[in-house]
Design goal:
Two copies of one chain form a homodimer. Chain A is of the alpha/beta class and 296 residues long. The first copy, chain A, has helices spanning 43-55, 96-104, 113-124, 186-190, 192-199, 211-231, 248-260, 281-294, and strands at 11-16, 20-26, 32-39, 63-67, 108-112, 132-138, 142-148, 151-152, 235-239, 271-273.
Chain lengths: 296, 296
Amino acid sequence: MATVSTDRPLLGAIEAGGTKFVLATGTADGVIVSRHTIPTADPVSTMAAASDWFDAQPAIAALGIASFGPVELDRRAPLWGHILETPKPGWSNCDLAGHFMSDLGVPVGFDTDVNGAALGEFHLGAGRGTSGMAYVTVGTGIGGGVIVNGQIVHGAGHPEMGHIYPRRAADDHEFAGACPFHGDCLEGLSSGPAILSRWGKTLSDLPAEHEAHCRVAGYLAQLCHTLFASLAVERVILGGGVMKTPGLLARIQEATMNAGANYLPGRSRQSVVMPKLGENAGITGAFLLAEEARSI
Amino acid sequence: MATVSTDRPLLGAIEAGGTKFVLATGTADGVIVSRHTIPTADPVSTMAAASDWFDAQPAIAALGIASFGPVELDRRAPLWGHILETPKPGWSNCDLAGHFMSDLGVPVGFDTDVNGAALGEFHLGAGRGTSGMAYVTVGTGIGGGVIVNGQIVHGAGHPEMGHIYPRRAADDHEFAGACPFHGDCLEGLSSGPAILSRWGKTLSDLPAEHEAHCRVAGYLAQLCHTLFASLAVERVILGGGVMKTPGLLARIQEATMNAGANYLPGRSRQSVVMPKLGENAGITGAFLLAEEARSI
């Protein structure tokens, strides 16, 4: 076990996902002392297993939870810290934050999984030194978090990212899109399942000259351009399974530059990059949520 | 002249526009004590005339400037408070903030005209009580400001808003757009000059059944949807000359609702509205910039 210096208290972190819960102890500088993964079962047994694991660790000063959604993020709301209405059996209205606050007796910080990852990348990863950034994950769905003036943006609910409508080229009208709500919104065109349903393969399995690469890069570039043009973020960090496709980042960077047409005043400070924390972004962000919770 | 209570110091405000400078004294609660307008001539004589006017008023504790752009907003940058490269003759590199700071000997707050208006609407107008909002003006151009967690968003440069690419309907491909940089970006499709160049009349002068109304409402609704979906702002405030078109706001509200398809988690808290401060938004925001500058 790593040595923990006394001026950085030990913190707990949970990355609560739909298929697994990642549990960890560590410090606010992102050092992971101990880490454990449990499958996501029903809420009662999953939360009990998580509590048992934390009980077996040295005492933590606070806990941060970066959770799958939808969740209530308004600390003044009665349902703060709860999972809201979800198709996941048993989890609707589960009081995730409340359970651990009473079970472990520590302050709890709580946010979405993507906001957690955004916070981790902002303080300790690819977003360091920026005044504002967006973290977007492109995988089973498309979701994102935004940091502005050093703070996570909540707003009404939280940023979604996946459901904006990218423009499609004149010769691109055969696929109706895979989003049950919006058809050919960004998620309906560029998520992993959308790509699979349109072209029958993952983007990585399609040859480099296949039209899918430019199409998907073009859609994602429009999100980047939109974030630059509407919010003036300095950096867009693109993660998730689809982004592991070789060459995709470079195509998106080029298409984003073309969309901007050398016009936006802050363009020299803007970039599209990959995450630096990899699969530790969420759990690192959860440590930072725990650290914030200590001062609430 | 209105009575000024002693606990609210008198502040100065300048709304620096391309055709006129609005000068005012008043307080941080938006009360205008005295107001004066001068035409925008060359920088030297315009700034001298403004200084003369302030010299003839009771002493102010600080000055706020909401300026036409492009401007440098980073207080750590050498060109902070300057007008940057502009086609407006003589104004490139004009040190607007520095002039008044040394001439009037008071702290100066400085931001863009639209950020000033956004700040005014946020604290004293249609954005009151929201956690985050965007103010967008639709006129000669399309520009906007964003407030998140109570603060103006600067980022790299500042939000532009006008240069995102709205999707166009399948039967809407005849007009190439009026933006010299991006063709049919939002500004190239929905600004006053774009409407005039496409349909030969202002939107207000076109009959209610003319396709222009639905087209323009649809483009602007996509900006609203994008701001809701990507940033989760609670309110989008739409001002400017084009928005004075009867019925336009209602069409935009309906199209925004359709674009969202009843999906976004915070939708019950989100709305598209008109400004409340009218043409005083910018000058009111400038008082707030002055108030902020007092504590810098």
